[in-house]
Each structure stands twice: as C-alpha cells, then as structure tokens.
Amino acid sequence: METLTDRARRFALPALVLLTGLTVAWFVFVYERPESLGNIQRFLENQGKVLVVGGDDLVDLNAPGTELVSLAQERGISRLLEGRDEAAVVLALERRGYKALLADTRLARLDELARVSVKTRLALYRPLERFTADYLTERVALYKWHEPFEISKVDARRLIAVARQVLEGGRPPPAERESEPLRRDRPSEVAVVLRGQGKALIWRSARRRSLLQSTVDAALALRDRWETRQARRHGPLPEAVDRLNVELEIFHDYGRLADRSIPFLWRAVEPGIYGAIIRQPKKYRYQLPSTSVYSSLESVEDYLASVSSEADLGDDGWRSTSIKLERFRTVHFRETRPGGEIQELYRGIPPVGEEVLRRGRFEKAIALASDWLVDNQRPNGLFMYSYFPNTDKDPNQRNIVRHGLAAYSLAMTYEFDRRPTTLEAAKRALQFMLDNTRFGEGPPSPSGGTGPADEWQGKRIPRDMAFVRYSDADKNGPVGKMGAVAAAVFTLSQLATQIPMPDEWRRYAVGYGNFFLFMQKEDGSFHHYYCTSDHNYYNTETTIYPGEILLGLSRVYGMTHDEKYAEAFDRGMRYYERWWDSLSKEREPGGTYSEPIRVDLVQFVPWISMAMNDMFPRVTDPARARAYARFGIEVSDWIVDEYQFTEDRSFFPDYLGGYYKMPTELPAMHGCVYTEGTAAAYNLARSTRDERLRRKLLRATLLGCRYAIQQIFTPGVSDFWVPNPRRARGGVRYSLNGAKLRIDYSYHSISAIWQALKFMPPEDLP
User: Fold this and answer.
1) Pair 472, 537: CB distance under 8 Å
2) Average pLDDT for 96-122
3) Pairing of strands 100-104, 140-145
4) 3-class SS letters over 497-511
5) 384 DSSP 8-state letter
6) Cβ contacts of residue 536 below 8 Å, gap of 6+?
C-alpha cells in the first residue's frame, strides 16, 4: 500500500523538493566533512596549563609552552562541567592551576537539542558569563575566564544621561564624580545610537579605557557626524535630540573566527546575539547584533554580507579567511522616550518572561493579535496576506486556506473579546469563503475552466457537496483545497456557538461535510486537492491536511449529529494512526529523523491533536474515545520530547517554549503551531485524568504561549524599530530575527492562546 508519505514525496511540488534537497545536503555537509582546527596550535603556544574538554587527539597537539591535560584526569571538574554553575567551574580550574580551556565541538550537536550545561555551552559556542572564546574553529575553541561583564540598570541610565548631555552640546562630566563601575579601568567599546520611530538615524562607537570615556567619545563622534550627515534634514542636533531616543550597545565577549563554513558560523554567530567585526590594516567595520533583527536578516550569511558591505568588500568579502573576522556581544539599553525611563533589550526587543502566564495577559494578547487582522481586512472581506514591517511593504499575495484560518482566529477571539468589530470582521471573512463556494460542480482546471461534473477519481460527483474554488496564484489556476473547506467549517462552527446560525450556514456546513465524504478514499485517507488531472495540484498531498480534515468532520458532526460524518472520521483516524505508527519509527542511526520525515511528522501532529480533542467528547463509544485520546496525546507528547526548547534545552531565554526546526533557522512560527497541538493534548490528558501527562503538556503549552506572546508587536513596547507602527500593531513576527508578518502566523498564535484560555482552569492558568 502506498502511504501518505510515499504519495506526498512522489507528487511533491518542485519548490518542496528543492528545499528538502538543500536541507539534506546541509546536514551531510555539517556532519560528514572534516572539521578544521584552524591555527589553533599557534594560539595555544605559551598558554601554560590548559584543560582539554573533548577528543583525546587534541591532547597530542604540539604547542610549545603549553601543557595540555585531558578532562579524563579531572573527574571533579568533569562533574562540574555537567552542571550550570560557571563560577564553580572557574574556581576549580584556578585551584588546579589551569590558565585556559580547549573545548571540542564534537561533544554536542545542534540538531540533538543538547541539555544546557557549562560543557554544552562551551562545545556549541553558546554565550557564557564567565568564559570567552578567544579563538574559534570548526573543531575547537580556546576559552579564557574572567569576571562577569555586568552593567546595572542604574549605571546604564547614567551612561545614557551622559550621552544625552554631550549630544545636547554640554560638557562631559568629570570622571571623578561618577560611580566606580563607570570610571574604572575596563577597556570597552560603546556604541551610541539615535533613533526616532523606525530605523536608527545615526550611531557612532568608541573604545577607551573606561565605560564613561567610551560613551563620551562615542557621543562626541556622533555629534561631529551629525553635522555632515543629518543636520540639513533633521536640524541642529541639540534640538533634534529632544525628539529622539538614545540607545547604548556596550561591546564584550570578543572572539576570532578562524573558519568560514556555514555550519560553523551558525554555531559561532547566533543572529541577534552576536555581531561581527571585520578588521583590516586601515579599516574597522562592524554591524551591531541587533541589525539582524531590525533589518530582518534571518541567515548568518545575510548578516555577514551586511558587515562585509559596510567594510566595502562586497557581499562576499567576509568569506575570505585572509580577512580578520571576529564575533562580539553587546549589552543593549534604550530610552522608552526621549530623556525617559530606560529598558534593557534582548535580541533587540524587551524580554518577555513568565510574568505573561496569566489569564488576563492571554486575553489581551489574542485581542491585540486579532486587531492586526481586523486592521488589514479589505472591504470584500479578504485579508491582506503578509506584510514586512521593517520595510513597510505589502507583497500583495493571497492564500485562501490561511484566509479561512484568519477568519477562524477572529471567531475564536470573539469568545473572549466581545467587540462588535471582531465579530463583523469574522463574518465578512466567512462570507468571502461562502461567495467562492460551489455546489456539485466539476473539478477546477488550471486554465480557469471546469472539468466534467459527472465523476472524478472514479466516484460520482454529488450535487449536494460544496467546496471553495479559488486561485491563490494565477499561474496555477483555481483549485478546491480541502484545507480551505476545513477552515470555512471551523469559522462557521465557531461562530455558531456564539450567534444564531442562519439556515444558509447550515446548508453550507452540510455541503462541506459531504465534500469531505466525497474526497475520502476506500482506505480511509483523503484526496487533498479537487482539480482536473492536468493541474499542478492533482494527486499531490500534504501532511498538514489530514488533521484539518478530521477536525472539519468533527465540527460537521457536532452541528448535524449525522453518524456518517463520525464514521468517516473514525476510518480516517485509523488510517492516519497506522501511518504515524510506521513513519515515526523511521529514525536515523543517531536517533534523529531525516529532514523529509521530520517535516512530514511535525506538520501532521498539531491538527491531529486538535481533531482528536474535538471529537473526544462527541463520541459515546468508550473504546473510540480512549483511542482518540491516546492518539491525540501521543503525537504532541512526541513533539515536545523531540523538539521543544524547554528549561533544560534553552541556551537563550527567548528560545523558551519555542521549537527546534533546523540548525540554520532560529525558533520561529512553527512553535506556535505545535503549541496548538499541545494545548489540545493537555485537554485530552486532563479529560482522561492522566496527571503526569497533564502536568507535562500544561508546562509545554504555557511556555509555547509565552513564546507566542513574545512575537506579537506590542504598541509602545516592541514596535519602536519599525517605520509604520500602526500597520505592525498586533502582528506576529515569523521568528526571533524574521520580521515578516502573515495572517497564518496570527492564526496559530491566537489558536494556541485561545485553547489555553478555553481548556485551562484557574489553578492551571490564574
């Protein structure tokens, strides 16, 4: 029997094939190529006693003036490295007479979601507060230790005040009047940035003996630069600065990057956390770490291209190993208004912690996210599909399935946010779907025509079936997508729980349900696209749709109580359970999944959990109910274990609750998708009184909602860097450094948070 995955791959669209091929090639490149040591032996010379954390072959490196000692000889330090206490490791190293540490990258892999410890941070080149990697190669890094680099909020406030005083034309304050941390001998580079609304207008940096002097000299340099670059447009600086916010980015944690391979650079230069410097004999250029976020430079390559261009080396100049390339971090503070309170930023935005895990905050979050949809709806009910807030551009795309999900978002939001504007926008969006619905019609053709209306795929076309006929891309022509029909059902059924359902809606609901039945195959699976045989979509499938279809069947069953929909659901569930049981066992020798299988599995999971949770209370057969609960819990429990960044696996605080996708992308919108599934699975565990899984899935869902709320543009808080905050308000960013907003990003975030609100009692969500 040809499985769903077999068919999906055999008929995959070219773009998916290309993406998968590139990703697989990347994994081969990462883990099969030899790893360079760079010039590590030269950097190891005259280092004294050095602890080698990693391969025994590294102990044999020839480094005059250096004694290399294997970690195997230091059991006490080895135990400490497995923990998180950096200070304890440093103390033990000093007591044993060590001067440096050599860490082997082979101790941990990015794709295995290593547990956070001092050792894994060292191996993965993740930030540490007591260690700095002076020299990093593909294979090893040479670390030194130091006191933590800390800037208190009080000191940051004072430095910004000093910068503002200088920018206004005042004299720098005498150093002896400042606090000891600001005036003490601590060579530091400080960048002073001026920003209104949107892109930074100007910045300059200086490196001097103290934080105070660096700040003063950077402000003086910016003052001089203003006269030649900005004065004509924005007026004299002393007047302009009253309208602008001052930011400081204070540099630390420098390290030389020996190699240029993409896998190495993704380990060493975490976008938005680390910046890069190009040093040449007569030129020194950098881009601040926050540039990756504010310019939506999602890849390390794109970020480094911007650094290279800044150094007049073209987009590819950074690739040359003859160029001295370094990484660095910054501590980042900004004024919330000119001369006002300051806030510390993390990866360019204010950090979001567990303080948002409250019912009131969740309700505000979905209301705000739904506002973006309402504000971006056209008069005909169709939503603007996507928007780039960093450039204030709308690419003018469309997608009918995601339009339907956006409509469903508003219907869900209305349950907790009873504003008439939310309801009316949801109804307009649904009407757009209904206006594009056809009853008993033949399959759409790529030319825009319609195929024969007698039979399709060997089945008679019923006159009472209804599908949404729409063209997302003109080159493909119209098509009937099962996902579009499912989304229409979700919206219609959700609205029907809150307002009287017109008879017309009931007719559509039955028609959509009959379309599901028509598209079901003998084995219980479904066709995914209704179209003629010469269409690009003909016989193609996606692992996203099975759960959407099953959830749609559950909703139609709930509205009609017609057992034929429940029977179709059960047949489909049995087929896809067998498919899941088979494919989820196909692991690589190391325990991970190949990229095509990973994609098939993770796309499948959330909708399946939501479908099982929706049907569970509707069935009267206890055996069926148990089977649905087991399946719905199992798949989301699996995805948490495999891919969620939990407390034990989050090397960065803004990762917490997000999910791993691939080593070349930061946590992104897919995490909100998976949280939809864990929320549904949590409710199944709660309903079946499985306390262990309830607690586990509760935590996974709450952390996932934290991540989702973090990604929402909040007015006056996280929108200061976009040129048109009104259009960004309430939108949900694609990733930690990807600014793109899209209607399905809003849907997934709203759905995850809405389910938490709906299913969690006060003791789980206060």
Assistant:
1) no
2) 94
3) antiparallel
4) CCCCCCHHHHHHHHH
5) P
6) 13, 446, 476
pLDDT tens-digit map of 222-259 = 999 999 999 999 999 999 999 999 999 999 999 999 99
72 by Cβ neighbours in 10 Å (0-12 / 13-18 / 19+) ranks as exposed
- If you average pLDDT over residues 155-172, what whole number do you get? 97
Residue 585 carries which DSSP code?
A: T
CA–CA separation, 67 vs 51, rounded Å?
Answer: 8
- Give the C-alpha separation, 64 to 738, whole Å: 46
- Does 184 score more than 70 pLDDT? yes
pLDDT for 1 equals: 32
Chain centre distance of CA 689: 32
Q: What is the dihedral of CA 626, 631, 636, 641, to 10 degrees?
A: 100
Residue 538 CB: number of other CB atoms within 10 A?
A: 17
Kindly tell me if the per-residue pLDDT of 490 is higher than 90: yes
Whole-angstrom Cα Rg for the chain: 28
| Tokens of residue 132, six digits | 């700095």
Q: How far is CA 335 from CA 192, 210, 349, in A?
A: 12, 22, 12
Which of 92, 726, 711, 709 minimizes the C-alpha distance to 364?
A: 709
**In 10 A of CB 341, how many CB atoms?**
9
d(CA 316, CA 729): 36
Q: What is the average per-residue pLDDT within 729-741?
A: 98
What is the number of helices (H) and of strands (E) in the chain? 27, 20
Pairing assessment for the beta strands 131-136 and 245-257 based on DSSP bridges: parallel
The boundaries of every CATH 1.50.10.10 domain in the chain are 354-759
Q: Which of 284, 273, 306 is nearest to 206 (CA)?
A: 284
Spatial CB neighbours of 327, under 8 Å, sequence gap ≥ 6: 136, 253, 254, 255, 257, 268, 269, 274, 275, 276, 277
CATH number 3.40.50.2000 is the correct assignment for the domain at 153-345: no
For 507-527, the pLDDT digits (tens) are 999 999 999 999 999 999 999
CB 537 within 8 A of CB 529: yes
- For residues 682 and 757, is the Cβ–Cβ distance under 8 A? no
Q: What's the token pair of residue 580?
A: 């899941």
SS3 196: coil
Long-range pairs for 434-438: beta carbons < 8 A, 24 or more residues apart: 434/488, 434/504, 434/508, 436/400, 436/468, 436/469, 436/470, 437/466, 437/467, 437/468, 437/469, 437/488, 437/508, 437/511, 438/466, 438/467, 438/468, 438/469, 438/480
- Mean pLDDT computed over 426-451: 98
CATH annotation of 354-759 = 1.50.10.10
Mean pLDDT of the chain: 94
Residues of the chain with CATH 3.30.1490.150: 153-345
Residue 639: which pLDDT band, with cuts at 50, 70 and 90? very high
Rounded Cα distance, 741 and 744, in Å: 9
Cα four-point dihedral sign 693, 697, 700, 703: negative
Amino acid identity for residue 317 in this structure: G
pTM > 0.85:
yes
Helical pair 563-583 and 503-519, crossing angle rounded to 10 deg: 40
SS3 (DSSP) at 663: coil
Contact 89, 138 (CB under 8 A): no
* Residue 12 confidence (pLDDT): 37
- Provide the CA 557 distance to its chain's centre, in angstroms: 35
